[in-house]
Amino acid sequence: xxxxxxxxxxxxxxxxxxxxxxxxxxxxxxxxxxxxxxxxxxxxxxxxxxxxxxxxxxxxxxxxxxxxxxxxxxxxxxxxxxxxxxxxxxxxxxxxxxxxxxxxxxxxxxxxxxxxxxxxxxxxxxxxxxxxxxxxxxxxxxxxxxxxxxxxxxxxxxxxxxxxxxxxxxxxxxxxxxxxxxxx
Length: 184
Fold this sequence. Notes:
The protein is about 25% helix and about 30% strand. It is α/β, with parallel strands linked by helices and about 180 residues long. The protein has a single domain (about 25-180), classed as 3-Layer(aba) Sandwich (Rossmann fold), CATH 3.40.50.
């Protein structure tokens, strides 16, 4: 795996994904960041179910001010820390080894401009739970966006209290669905 563009563009990530982790493909990462465009610059970025942290590191490379990485796996968190250290970016990232629901329950001291969630494709129950947590809390900054990666054949929740689905982009076997805070 490598960083695609920006400050760390072309650099290989040092740590391998832990077993059972499905890394986001380079092509899908490129699509994600093409859609997000300039909103990544100076953003506060959340990479949840982070694996080796490729999405959050890509965001840092493309100008995000800060990234928070959340993953339950000790091996995944060690991989993220190793990658941040190798890129000399540890001061711009925070790694939390815990379930996302626990992290969102008051453990985060910021609101996110961009939140990226990539739960295991087989755990469809997490999509609704996580969207409801974001919808109920003040976790997105004004104008912020929540992006969920999921299997292309899966229809993610459309209307969850507090969140509106605004766009889905299918690419191969995977898809990205974009949500924003519901209007008043």
